[in-house]
Q: What sequence folds into this?
């Protein structure tokens, strides 16, 4: 079967949003496909093409689609011949061709795109040669030993970083990892959606996705790289427009610079950002609303410490009295984090100077030794606030992980003790809906059709169109519905529950919120819940059905 223009978008209402997804389904059904694609539509080359042509190509094809091709043939044409074909009206209408030749299809752009096509084809041929050598045990210079790691954070969440990592891994014929060090940050929904989008792009480019909890992104990333035998690290140029980022750069404390500092023995590739990415990233980082409550409570805690210190001054020396303020600062840091604790440190310093350093009840400092005492008090307070904030962040992340682990353990014990299938389905629906904050429906085969056997959905019925998407997911053993690559126009998202023998059921998810139903963390949690549920359903004797492609 011949299908033209692989990268283009299908008309609304089609089974798949992209034409290359139609090709994948045809290949799964055993149908050979002959198709075409222009080099500018390859996902990993998107940034390079944009820098050459000054035009961002929106229609792209994941690299793995081209990589799965049995044969790749380069249709090469010189820029002059192509321009002549455009003048002859063989590609565009006359008025369209003239405008195109002045902008996108200039001789310089065509020459650069031609070189990209030649290089990409050469890489494909080289990969086929390596596969042939391995299949036939032919000795040769194997491209082995390299392992690439892309360090992805919210601040450095630039798509060009991932594309560079993909190109580097392809050039070195090496596997690559995308690492996200999860810290306790007050992220907005928009920022979480950005990270989920970048992880989805990394998966489409063929990366191994890893998320680890941590506090110091640079230290934790380097430690992980050493344990995984990584040979090269890729990081993004730090955001440098807001004043805090510039201060960090002047002090050499940006994440990328600290990563370079700690990554002894690792080559570190610092990737520049695509135009406009700084502004978009800073907008995500700065949309968290300011709340005065932590600062007000921090001030009250310092005032309480002042009262205690005034009572202790009658019996103890000033150096001992200062411990009351340090205790208050630690309490604010543990309760509210870094910035409120820094505010508490400043308030404590002013109170210590005003009430305990002569001359009293003034901010003037008479004796030089009191200046030294006040300076070291401030340094100690800042260190204490920083350490307290770190302890709080680590405790929040650990508590979050512990809650997830406890929920999974409770779910496992609950479904193990259930004997009836109906009770199992209802319990699983309730647990998944509670943990993922969405509506859930469990669908099982009844003859050759799927029916809703249990639900925890607040009255959100599965309509006929959604049921068709669920049936497609069951037949093809693939995710379908809202936000997926297959039938994305529905209201529900359907995920097959699989065991080693095949699919046993389909779970449907629905949420009123806009955007994807599941973020990256929820997707991992659902995978764990789905595996346990599928095994429990299989153990209760659910029958399997095989569907033939129509």
A:
């Amino acid at each position: 079967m011949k299908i033209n223009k692989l990268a283009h978008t299908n008309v609304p209402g089609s089974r798949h949003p992209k034409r290359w997804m139609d090709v994948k389904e045809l290949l799964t059904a055993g149908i050979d496909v002959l198709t075409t694609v222009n080099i500018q539509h390859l996902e990993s080359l998107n940034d390079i093409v944009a820098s050459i042509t000054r035009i961002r190509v929106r229609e792209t094809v994941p690299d793995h689609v081209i990589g799965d091709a049995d044969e790749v043939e380069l249709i090469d044409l010189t820029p002059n011949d192509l321009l002549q074909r455009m003048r002859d009206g063989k590609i565009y209408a006359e008025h369209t061709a003239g405008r195109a030749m002045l902008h996108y299809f200039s001789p310089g752009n065509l020459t650069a795109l031609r070189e990209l096509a030649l290089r990409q084809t050469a890489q494909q041929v080289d990969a086929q040669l390596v596969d042939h050598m391995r299949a036939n045990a032919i000795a040769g210079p194997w491209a082995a030993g390299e392992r690439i790691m892309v360090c992805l954070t919210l601040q450095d969440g630039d798509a060009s970083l991932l594309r560079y990592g993909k190109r580097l891994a392809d050039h070195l014929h090496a596997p690559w990892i995308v690492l996200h060090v999860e810290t306790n940050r007050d992220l907005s929904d928009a920022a979480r959606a950005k990270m989920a989008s970048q992880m989805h792009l990394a998966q489409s480019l063929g990366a191994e996705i890893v998320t680890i909890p941590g506090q110091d992104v640079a230290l934790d990333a380097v430690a992980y790289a050493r344990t995984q035998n990584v040979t090269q690290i890729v990081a993004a140029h730090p955001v440098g427009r807001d004043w805090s980022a510039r201060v960090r750069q002047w002090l050499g404390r940006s994440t990328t610079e600290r990563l370079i500092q700690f990554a002894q023995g690792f080559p570190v590739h610092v990737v520049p950002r695509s135009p406009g990415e700084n502004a978009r990233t800073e907008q995500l980082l700065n949309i968290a609303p300011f709340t005065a409550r932590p600062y007000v409570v921090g001030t009250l805690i310092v005032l309480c410490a002042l009262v205690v210190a005034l009572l202790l001054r009658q019996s103890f020396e000033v150096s001992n009295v200062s411990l009351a303020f340090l205790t208050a600062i630690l309490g604010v840091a543990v309760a509210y984090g870094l910035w409120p604790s820094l505010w508490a440190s400043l308030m404590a310093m002013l109170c210590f100077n005003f009430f305990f350093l002569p001359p009293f009840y003034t901010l003037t400092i008479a004796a030089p030794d009191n200046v030294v005492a006040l300076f070291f008090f401030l340094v100690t307070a800042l260190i204490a606030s920083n350490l307290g904030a770190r302890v709080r962040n680590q405790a929040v992340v650990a508590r979050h992980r512990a809650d997830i682990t406890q929920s999974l353990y409770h779910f496992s014990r609950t479904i193990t003790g259930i004997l009836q299938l109906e009770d199992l389905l209802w319990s699983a629906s309730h647990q998944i809906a509670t943990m993922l904050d969405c509506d859930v429906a469990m669908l099982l085969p009844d003859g050759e059709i799927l029916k809703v056997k249990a639900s925890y959905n607040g009255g959100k019925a599965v309509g006929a169109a959604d049921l068709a998407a669920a049936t497609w997911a069951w037949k093809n053993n693939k995710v379908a519905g809202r936000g997926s690559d297959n039938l994305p126009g529905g209201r529900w998202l359907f995920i097959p529950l699989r065991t080693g023998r095949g699919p046993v059921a389909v779970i449907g998810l629905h949420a009123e919120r806009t955007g994807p139903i599941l973020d990256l963390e929820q997707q991992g949690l659902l995978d764990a819940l789905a595996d346990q549920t599928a095994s429990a359903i299989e153990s209760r004797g659910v029958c399997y059905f095989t569907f033939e492609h129509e």
Q: What stands out?
A: Residues 293-394 form one domain. The chain has a mean pLDDT of 78.
